[in-house]
Amino acid sequence: MLRKATHLAAVLFLFSVLLTGCGGTGPEEAAQGALEATISGDFKSATDFFCKSMLEDMPPQELIDEIAKELQQYDFDFSGLKYEVLEQSDDAAKVHVTGSISATGPDDEKNDEMDETISLVKEDGKWKVCE
Question: What is the residue range of the signal peptide feature (predicted)?
Fold first, then answer.
């Protein structure tokens, strides 16, 4: 069940990636917030930080709700992840995320490896994930 939920979250993350930093945070913090909110199933908070074009391409709310319900059954540990800014200009950045995420759920415990590059843009003075 975790594998399916993690896969669905990854699809959602890659299809309509999320978050941005608040205030003075940089692209690295925005990427971290986006990833943690998405995988934890906190899509309501996360979507506040999507770039405008991502919000237009969001999957149906029913799918988002289904994924969130499954993911929220787990406790996630993101301490094994590392974030590295690969590129950054005044209005765009790429952050590479590597490492492992562990999840403890009602029936199982899993570790998944991550190796993703997250694209961000600056909109209205804030870093926002925008694939």
Answer: 1-20
Whether the CB-CB separation of 27 and 117 falls below 8 Å is answered with: no
Copy the structure tokens of residue 28.
């690295």
pLDDT bucket at 131, cuts 50 / 70 / 90: confident
- Compute and round to an integer the Cα radius of gyration of the chain: 14
Domains held by the chain: number:
1
Could you tell me the residue range of the domain that residue 119 belongs to?
A: 2-129
Residues facing residue 122 across a β-bridge: 127
Task: For residue 105, give the H/E element and its range.
Answer: none
Asked whether the beta carbons of 39 and 11 are under 8 A apart, the reply is: no
Rounded Cα distance between 41 and 2, Å, is 12
CATH number at residue 124: 3.10.450.100
75 phi and psi angles, rounded to 5 deg: -105, 125
